Amino acid sequence: MSFLKLNHISHQYFHDKGYTKSVDNISMAIEEGAFISVLGPSGCGKTTLLSIISGIIQPTHGEVLLRNQPLSNTASGIGYMLQQDYLFPWKTILDNVLTGPKIQSKETEQTKDKAIQILHEIGLANVVHSYPKSLSGGMRQRAALARTLMTDPNLLLLDEPFSALDYQTKLKLEDLVSSLLKEYNKTSILVTHDIGEAIAMSDRIFLMKANPGEIAEIFEVPIEIRNLQPFQARKHLKYQLLFDRIWEELNELENKHPV
Amino acid sequence: MNLKTNTLSDEQLFEQYKKQRKAYRKSITFWQLVIFAAFFISWEFASRMEWIDPLIFSSPSKVGHLFAEKLIDGSLWFHLQVTLLETIIGFVAGTLLGIILAAILWWSEKLSKILDPYLVILNAMPKVALGPIIIVALGPGYVSIIAMGAIICIIITALVVYSAFREVDENYVKVLKSFGATRWQCFTTAILPASFPAMISTLKVNVGLSWVGVIVGEFLVSAKGLGYLIVYGFQVFDFTLVLYSLLVIAILAALMYQLVEKLEKWLIKNTAG
């Protein structure tokens, strides 16, 4: 049984002058605890796909099953991390991390202790009572991760969460996120346009093409790389081989469907 | 010269910088006072020399005398409290109703689309022209005057605050929705607090507007208050009284504005860190 299943998902955006097919006939099955990446050029419907999986958008065709249940029955249980941190600037880091429990009316002393513990683990122990604006981009994105993890989501959706960071911070954060998600045994879907990031972090890569957004190819990441931290994975020989294969595939797609 | 400044330590340079800033601020205050003094002195002088008609333009000394007189016989406080109370109630009511209207518009996008042309017309229409109708409908008393003070700022508050609501980044709502937040929770957790700065700036505008509404309201009906004094002074051709009332209004409006600014500073300090 798959943990998450997408059955022939299609979605159109309607506007006054017609409609655009954003994603077309996408099916995938993801096992519990897996880390998969959706890789593709901009405009291939990656973010639309995530919004559909999270239940924010209803697809025009197809269905999403989480543990064999339609999404509407499972309510939340899904954590979303965006390109930017979207921490509330008027709340302290602790209050930001407690946003989820507060919305779900589950705020207790226990959740507060848990929040502080997560912040410790993530290396933000000494900014618990600071405001977001006094933190660096990397720290803010870590706080956003803590906020996402607070509600114990079964499924984590990562929408290019490292793309707004400088390179060094990005590499460090990849390692942190990767080890945290393994530790908590989370199922995660990462959307990215960075080939290296997709290889270094995930178990499987879905390569998408644009207009309409379809899955062009699926790459299994070699087991040797999967077990390494992203930073170490980048140095592995097989990393380079897979990178070249995906690179060629992307170029071929571009030639077939010039942008 | 260059060599000499180079030998100054960082600490000394900082002292020098502080001194310059202080001198700069002092000169700003100085020129503000110069304008103030020049205005009143030239007014007094022109009036005494009869370059301007003293009957119409009065003079600072006459206004000052009247001020002292009214202060002693208690009528300053009497008229002032009437108008001030009406203005504060009108200001608070207008602002709150405007924000509530904005919230309703945010809640239903369809309703906001439907109401859009009417809001634009209502906003463009001079609200004081509604005065006579309001007075007939609500009776010639302080209720009508407060209504004038409120009505003049409701629509503009609603429009400004509503557009502030809409400018809040959708991704904040996305984050909250991923936690399963209701629409009301999205509103109170993200939309409303994110719009505080816009609300404060409408407060500043509303201070001035509600004074206009209340004074016009008093022109039309009342038998007391600063607006009444202005109309009365005009009817008996006592322009010293008119200018005295204007002076009191100017002082009160400035004080109210200062209070709103204090509130703004307090809010920024206590909400944004």
From TrEMBL, chain A:
Alphabetical list of SUPFAM superfamilies matching this protein: P-loop containing nucleoside triphosphate hydrolases
Keyword Transmembrane: no
Database matches in Gene3D superfamilies: P-loop containing nucleotide triphosphate hydrolases
InterPro entries: AAA+_ATPase, ABC_transporter-like_ATP-bd, ABC_transporter-like_CS, ABC_transporter_ATP-bind, P-loop_NTPase
Database matches in PROSITE patterns: ABC_TRANSPORTER_1, ABC_TRANSPORTER_2
Domain ABC transporter per the UniProt entry, residue ranges: 4-235
Keyword Cytoplasm attributed: no
Keyword annotations: ATP-binding, Nucleotide-binding, Transport
MF annotations from Gene Ontology: ATP binding; ATP hydrolysis activity
Protein name: NitT/TauT family transport system ATP-binding protein
Biological source species: Sediminibacillus albus
From TrEMBL, chain B:
Subcellular location: Cell membrane
Any one GO cellular component localisation term in the record: plasma membrane
Keywords noted in UniProt: Cell membrane, Membrane, Transmembrane, Transmembrane helix, Transport
Topology versus the membrane: Multi-pass membrane protein
Protein family membership: Belongs to the binding-protein-dependent transport system permease family.
InterPro entries listed in its UniProt record: MetI-like, MetI-like_sf
Keyword Transmembrane: yes
Chief place where the protein resides: membrane
Protein name, entry field: NitT/TauT family transport system permease protein
Species name: Sediminibacillus albus
Residue span, ABC transmembrane type-1 domain: 76-260
Membrane spanning stretches: 28-46, 88-107, 119-139, 145-165, 209-234, 241-260
Signal peptide annotation: none
Biological-process GO terms, alphabetical: transmembrane transport
